Amino acid sequence: MSISFAILGILSWKPSTGYELKKVFQESSFMYWSGNNNQIYKALLQMQNEGLVNPEVIHQDSAPSKKLYRITKEGLDELKKWVLSSPEAPEFKKTFLIQLAWSDVLNNQELNEQLSRYEDTVRVQLLLEQEKSRRSLNSPNRNDRETFLWDMLYQNLISSYQAELDWINQVRQKLFENEV
């Protein structure tokens, strides 16, 4: 999936500057692009050339001019076409799984400490997602259905972190109680 569809989605919610788009990407847990300026502005320029977005130059007295991007009808059509396309299978890229795969080189204490560090990291992420959900950060909330869908996005992330914590406990229990 390209960053362009995420940008079109955000612009379907509200017109935004490149800087505002970058902030949404930085604060989002499921829009996984780094949202660096080059990535965003390159995509915006390409979409502008394709007629999917229109920029509006806003002049400011005490600051440089800025461009506010709006989605066009063609952009909305392209977004809808993409939303209706077949979803990709989820990707699981967890560095910890690679570390765990080769953790037989560790003694039990070292392995338990590594599991604890990972558990702490996951627990912090879980708390962050719960707080984001509570605050509804960057959720459009234009109607009840959309609010429900965004709540479910947050619940998906929260349940993933909770499942990871449950899995860590399983690993610990089977490893150390049964002394595998």
TrEMBL record:
Residues 93-175 form the Transcription regulator PadR C-terminal domain. Gene3D superfamilies: 6.10.140.190, Winged helix-like DNA-binding domain superfamily/Winged helix DNA-binding domain (1.10.10.10). It holds the Pfam family PadR. This is Putative transcriptional regulator. SUPFAM superfamilies: Winged helix' DNA-binding domain (SSF46785). Residues 7-80 form the Transcription regulator PadR N-terminal domain. The lineage of its organism: Bacteria, Bacillati, Bacillota, Clostridia, Eubacteriales. InterPro entries: Tscrpt_reg_PadR_C, Tscrpt_reg_PadR_N, WH-like_DNA-bd_sf, WH_DNA-bd_sf. It comes from the Bacteria.
